[in-house]
């Protein structure tokens, strides 16, 4: 079975948790896109929900699929967010942000009662860090921010190369919020909660891609079928 089919299976399983009248966070990325498309099919057959998209790309997908939208300015909490992840560890800590939407994704996840993470089995890891950690930063004072990030990595027992993410035009990738992303190639993050706390207090860091304590369950699709992992 191809990877895209596995992603759609995970999205379909998460859709089983959606109930009439729910306020939903709609994630960003290839797996989350499947969820939005399947949700749109349910909406067209009468399901009443409203969604908050985590990116302009997801907003466009939701509109195309006929999913009604709102914002966190109009409602202050969500029943459920369904989103993908770049890595998931056994504690359901995540690395997210490969698609560049980590800031809005974290705001939406934090405003939700539950977060279901949907992915194929390849995203399951024993220790986070194989996937580069995205850190959303303000361009002003970037050298000072990078130096502070380097110290944070060292204090948490991690190290690696930091690269400014490039867009398709060859210039720095710009997020929906107007910021840049530094991808930190750490290889292994032994203490993800500690690193998350250290990065969060750096003034030039807008947000980082470590999602600690936000995922409540993970739906993983693999060759042997669907596996659901609940946060302990």
TrEMBL record:
Primary enzyme class: isomerase
SUPFAM superfamilies membership: D-ribose-5-phosphate isomerase (RpiA), lid domain, NagB/RpiA/CoA transferase-like
Catalytic site positions: 105 (proton acceptor)
Keywords carried by this UniProt record: Isomerase
Gene Ontology MF terms in the entry: ribose-5-phosphate isomerase activity
Keyword Cytoplasm carried by entry: no
Protein name: Ribose-5-phosphate isomerase A
Organism of origin: Bradyrhizobium jicamae
Gene field: rpiA
């Amino acid at each position: 079975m191809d990877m895209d089919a596995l992603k759609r299976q995970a999205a379909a399983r998460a859709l089983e948790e959606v109930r009439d009248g729910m306020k939903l966070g709609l994630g960003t990325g290839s797996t989350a896109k499947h969820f939005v498309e399947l949700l749109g099919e349910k909406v067209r057959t009468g399901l009443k929900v409203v969604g908050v998209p985590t990116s302009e790309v997801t907003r466009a997908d939701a509109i195309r699929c006929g999913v009604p939208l709102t914002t966190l300015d109009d409602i202050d909490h969500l029943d459920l967010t369904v989103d993908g992840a770049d890595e998931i560890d056994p504690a359901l800590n995540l690395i997210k942000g490969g698609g560049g939407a980590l800031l809005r994704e974290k705001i939406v996840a934090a405003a939700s009662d539950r977060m279901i993470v949907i992915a194929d089995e390849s995203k399951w890891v024993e220790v986070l860090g194989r996937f580069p950690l995205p850190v959303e930063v303000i361009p002003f004072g970037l050298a000072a921010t990078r130096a502070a990030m380097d110290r944070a990595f060292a204090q948490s027992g991690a190290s690696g190369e930091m690269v400014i993410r490039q867009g398709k035009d060859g210039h720095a990738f710009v997020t929906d919020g107007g910021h840049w992303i530094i991808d930190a190639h750490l290889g292994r993050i032994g203490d993800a909660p500690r690193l998350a706390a250290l990065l969060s207090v750096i003034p030039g860091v807008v947000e980082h891609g470590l999602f600690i304590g936000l995922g409540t369950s993970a739906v993983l699709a693999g060759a042997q079928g669907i596996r659901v992992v609940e946060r302990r």
